[in-house]
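Q: Here's a chain of 674 amino acids. Please give me its 3D structure as tokens.
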Amino acid sequence: MDEEKLQEELEKWEREIVLDPENFTAYVKKGNVLDDLGRSREALDSYNRALEINPAYDKAYCNRGIVLKKLGRQEEALSSYDKSLEINPRNDAAHYNRGYILNDLGRKEEALASYGKALQINPEDYAAYYNKGNILNDLKRKEEALDSYDKALEIKPDYDKAYCNRGIILKSLGRKEEALSSYNQALEANPGYDAAYYNRGNVLDDLGRKEEALASYNKALEINPDYGAAYYNRGNVLDDLGRKEEALASYNKALEINPRHDASLNNKGLLLSGLGKREEALACYIQAIQINANNEIAKRNRRSLVGSKEFWDSLPENSQVDLWSGDDDFNILANKEQLEGCSGKDLFHIHRLWVEQYRLLYLLNADLEQVGHYTSSMVFETLLQKQTKENGKASPLLLCSLAAANDPTEGTVFQAFLTQDCLPSQRIQSHLAVLQASFSSAIDSLNQFRLYGKNKGEEGTGLCLVFNRTFFAKPGETSMIAVQKEDDDSSKKEANMCRKLPLYWVLYYECSSGRMYYTPACFEYSLNKDFDVCEDTLKESERKKFQEIGKSLRKIREHFEHISEKAQKAALEMLIYLRHLVKDAAFKDEKELRILSLHSYHDQNSLLKVLPGKNCLSVGYLPVIHDGEEYLEKVIAGPKLRDFANLVDVAQFRLHHLGGKKKVVFRQSQAPLS
């Protein structure tokens, strides 16, 4: 009925009321018309007047409940339906509408019961079956939901919404062809049904029928040009088809409709990154994270982007790229309370330090095929122990706290570099524990056998465990290691870390000369006190990388010098990774690489443990065999290890029982120790 006819109907019932002010039926009819005109408050007044005249009129209570729901007064609406049912327990409309309200209030089991009563009274109520199916789906009772939709369709064979929702459930159950058929039936019943075209596009995409999926999304958008989700999924299909510019336009359209759609921003970022527009991609990831702090996909894509060679190569010399907004690590490492008192100048230089830390971590990311880890035969035996009854669950390699390192200058040399003192400064107290495992590019090194893995203090009795590249995150997978958050859900954690960390080269600083040493593989390169490359024999690619390390170190020192003394503590806390990737030059022969992990002392759900018998904290990394991957390549024993043959027998036996398939090479170093 159009508005003009509704107005005529309203005037009719008002005349009836003038003639008979006690005509409660006329008040109800007037309320119905006012409701149809969108005048809900006036409709409510009319129903209330009807009930003043006749408090036993169940239909008035039922209609009053409908209007109260529209006004957002859900609990009052529920009471109104209950009052209607006290008067007439067989008012199926009241049971139906009561179910609607209970579902809105999250009381789904009660809602189901209410729809059940409505259907006992009126078994032909297809809408009740439809709504019941929706609730059953919400409760994950998918087969029952399907049965409910089927009953609705038996009564009303052209019920387009029932076909569409039935298709959604069939798709979720993996019955994709049946889902497609259900969407097609919805469209036969209603060719202008945009949601059916949208869902049809989704299932066609899943079936790999990309062009048909695209056509279905286009049809949905013809019908409803403001269908943001259709633009988003259309963008995904266009991207899959290699039509990048069209995909970008589709994501932009989705964001015009809903600027806070973080998934569109994430996918737009991926697309822009592939098109070489990396700073624009970074801005998209940041925006997605700011909208949804739990968007782990956008966080991962952001980390991958800023850890990639392509990203750093694309930045101009004096880029002001933003690497701190939306960065969990920055918010934790650059302590918020300390930053609150910082001046604009201090914040500018702290932000630039953060960028340079990212740049250095990218430059120091190691990509060696094999690295050595020097340890004792006792630790190796522990690594081959089963941790649980499951095959393949060996004990993990432990990361241990650097606070207990043998090197008394640990974590302080970088501070000496920043302040250009001749002697390392006092260790910085931190609210974070830094844990690490050390590796070396010097495999089968007599120097390392002298230092590490001694049995009863005797040199040359340790082991060099040689791990392959897959033991570590790939360069570019992550540039910073996320600090464990205090609000993490502990129920989602495994018994150990079970995630790969990036491997970084250690730099060596010589306080007396101001030189910085970089020791990849068998070579040793040095920067002078001005951080310029000293060697003329470097390959061009190596020279360029080393020059970039020098530039970044120079910028870090310059920015630190411009930070006020009161803000330097926050800056040093933020540079915690670099503090543990710069050591005294006396150790440069070790050619060390490290993986690092940060953990809060105050985190109640922390994986941190006190290592039994040791004065340090520890956390598990990866076992030597994990999830079908085998990381151990060789085991090289020190020249003075006496029970090597027995160690090989036991190790091979245990590796086999852990599920090992490949052959691990065992050999003993032949170089004599003097």
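Q: Can you summarize the key feature?
A: The two ends are 104 Å apart (CA to CA).
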